[in-house]
């Protein structure tokens, strides 16, 4: 009897279960009660022994019930505590904290610089179409950048944007001037990874459109950015170049800098580092997007974010930024 009771009792998981089991084994209709009732049919001399036996069984069952009752209460308490999480005496749970990826740190730094210079941040999709990536940017149909070998076209139509200039188009489509935005984001080109190329990379685009914007404003903005990002002694220069969507077009350089733990300084022997493309928005682009090129002028530029990160953190090979080697990433732990 005790064995059966024990099994039933240990199976109980709530106070209610326990009550039922208690009634079953100790209640009025229980076997135990009927054993008590049978006492009088037992020969007198055997009664004490018989009585002891059932008393013992009863005591044992009561103990078991009490024991299981404690277990149930304790479990309920633990459960509650887990929910509320308030046991202040428990030792803390160690959690290892991550850090930001160096590219994220630099992107945020760039955002801050431009936000401080009065820009707003615009975004566009990574998957875009010929119109936003090429057509609206005045790119002729036979331009080499449209080549299948350079651009990732998607099977269902569309492409992975090859530059963030797509966002220039999206912003001009949607908003009338004055415009003053930057747009950081991923770009894709069918390049073999090497120390300075990656099929996925990041650019930050800038676009400023208003009445009376000139090349001097563009040059000034680039200089300001360079000196905030790399130090006030850093200067910039622009060299003639060509892009279908800017006229005139330029490539932008900053004076050679070396960076270390304490910041950046201009190289001892002068030299220049290429930072990206720039130019005055081509009137054709304005015409395509319905902005009156009689009244408005603007400039745009696109900077390589990897380039800036590699300079600032002294990273010799772009691929290091994508391998996610913990020994590299750990050096940025705690950067938020
Ligand atoms: N989109 C160009 C590139 O990816 C850079 C650029 C941006 C040039 C804006 C001019 C103006 O190379």
From TrEMBL:
GO terms for MF: ATP binding; magnesium ion binding; phenylalanine-tRNA ligase activity; tRNA binding
EC number: 6.1.1.20
PROSITE patterns named among the record's database cross-references: AA_TRNA_LIGASE_II (PS50862)
Reactions catalysed according to its record: tRNA(Phe) + L-phenylalanine + ATP = L-phenylalanyl-tRNA(Phe) + AMP + diphosphate + H(+)
InterPro entries: aa-tRNA-synth_II (IPR006195), aa-tRNA-synth_II/BPL/LPL (IPR045864), Phe-tRNA-synth_IIc_asu (IPR004529), Phe-tRNA_ligase_II_N (IPR004188), Phe_tRNA_ligase_alpha1_bac (IPR022911), Phenylalanyl-tRNA_Synthase (IPR002319), tRNA-bd_arm (IPR010978)
GO terms, biological process: phenylalanyl-tRNA aminoacylation
Coiled coil ranges: none
Principal place of residence: cytoplasm
Entry keyword set: Aminoacyl-tRNA synthetase, ATP-binding, Cytoplasm, Ligase, Magnesium, Metal-binding, Nucleotide-binding, Protein biosynthesis
Cofactor note: Binds 2 magnesium ions per tetramer.
HAMAP family linked: Phe_tRNA_synth_alpha1 (MF_00281)
Family as reported in the entry's similarity comment: Belongs to the class-II aminoacyl-tRNA synthetase family. Phe-tRNA synthetase alpha subunit type 1 subfamily.
Complex and partners: Tetramer of two alpha and two beta subunits.
Name recorded for this polypeptide: Phenylalanine--tRNA ligase alpha subunit
Native organism: Cloacimonas acidaminovorans (strain Evry)
Gene that encodes it: pheS
């Amino acid at each position: 009897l005790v064995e059966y009771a024990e099994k039933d009792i240990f199976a109980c998981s709530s106070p209610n279960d326990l009550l039922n089991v208690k009634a079953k084994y100790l209640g009025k209709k229980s076997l135990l009660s009927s054993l008590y009732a049978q006492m009088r049919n037992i020969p007198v001399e055997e009664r004490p022994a018989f009585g002891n036996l059932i008393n013992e069984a009863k005591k044992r069952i009561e103990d078991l019930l009490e024991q299981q009752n404690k277990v149930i209460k304790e479990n309920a308490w633990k459960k509650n505590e887990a929910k509320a999480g308030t046991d202040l005496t428990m030792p803390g749970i160690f959690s290892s904290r991550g850090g930001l990826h160096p590219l994220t740190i630099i992107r945020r730094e760039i955002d801050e610089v431009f936000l401080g210079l009065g820009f707003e941040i615009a975004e566009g999709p990574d998957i875009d179409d010929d119109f936003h990536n090429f057509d609206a940017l005045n790119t002729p149909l036979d331009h080499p950048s449209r080549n299948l070998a350079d651009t990732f076209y998607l099977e269902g139509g569309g492409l992975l944007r090859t530059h963030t200039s797509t966002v220039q188009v999206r912003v001009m489509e949607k908003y009338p001037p004055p415009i003053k935005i930057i747009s950081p984001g991923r770009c894709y080109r069918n390049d073999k990874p090497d120390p300075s190329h990656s099929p996925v990379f990041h650019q930050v685009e800038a676009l400023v459109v208003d009445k009376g914007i000139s090349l001097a404003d563009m040059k000034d903005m680039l200089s300001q950015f360079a000196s905030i990002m790399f130090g006030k002694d850093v200067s910039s220069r622009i060299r003639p170049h060509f892009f279908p969507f800017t006229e005139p077009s330029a490539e932008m350089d900053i004076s050679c800098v070396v960076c270390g733990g304490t910041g950046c300084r201009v190289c001892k022997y002068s030299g220049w580092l290429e930072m990206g493309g720039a130019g005055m928005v081509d009137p054709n682009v304005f015409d395509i997007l319905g902005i009156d090129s009689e009244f408005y002028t603007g400039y745009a530029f696109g900077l390589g974010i990897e380039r800036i990160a590699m300079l600032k953190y002294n990273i010799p090979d772009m691929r290091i930024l994508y391998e996610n080697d913990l020994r590299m990433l750990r050096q940025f732990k705690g950067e938020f």
